[in-house]
Amino acid sequence: VQLQASGGGLVQAGRSLSVSCAASGIIFRNYVLDWYRQAPGKQREWVARITNGGSASYADSVRGRFTASRDNAKNTVSLRMNSLKPEDTAVYYCAAESYLGIELWGQGTQVTVSS
């Protein structure tokens, strides 16, 4: 049972990057998928959510720049990040959420945005 993260890396400000998670061992379509991030010295913060049906919501700080998507056939969730800013630098985590709360976290992937 896991969420395997991929993507991330180093990118210049203003450019785009995608991160993804591939799920195994869960009934993927039953879960809401969240994205969180944690910058050095800061608390983990919620970034985006995509429901079972594909409706997405975003934190104010990323709305209009980030797009969450999911593929229930492939058990994957992705976060497309456009117009990246240095303040977007963080470790990005995906999470699988049920009515019980978050049940599974991905291992995180580093995104670094240089100015």
Task: Please provide a written account of the structure.
There is one protein chain. The protein is mostly beta strands and 115 residues long. The strands form two sheets. Strands 2, 4, 5, 6, 9, 10 and 11 form a seven-stranded mixed β-sheet that branches. Strands 1-3-8-7 form a four-stranded antiparallel β-sheet, with no helix packed on it. The model has no long low-confidence stretch (mean pLDDT 96). Helices cover 0% and strands 57% of the residues.
List its salient traits.
115 residues; mainly beta; seven-stranded mixed beta sheet; four-stranded antiparallel beta sheet; 11 strands; 57% strand
Return the average pLDDT rounded to an integer. Answer: 96
User: Helical residue percent?
Assistant: under 10%
Backbone structural class? mainly beta
Return the string of H and E elements.
EEEEEEEEEEE
Strand residue percentage:
over 45%
Strand tally is 11
Count every helix, treating DSSP H or I runs of 4 or more residues as helices: 0
Brief characterization of the structure:
The protein contains no helices and eleven strands.
Topology:
Blueprint: E1 2-7, E2 9-12, E3 17-24, E4 32-38, E5 45-50, E6 56-58, E7 66-71, E8 76-81, E9 90-98, E10 101-105, E11 109-114
Parallel strand pairs: 2-11
Antiparallel strand pairs: 1-3, 3-8, 4-5, 4-9, 5-6, 7-8, 9-10, 9-11
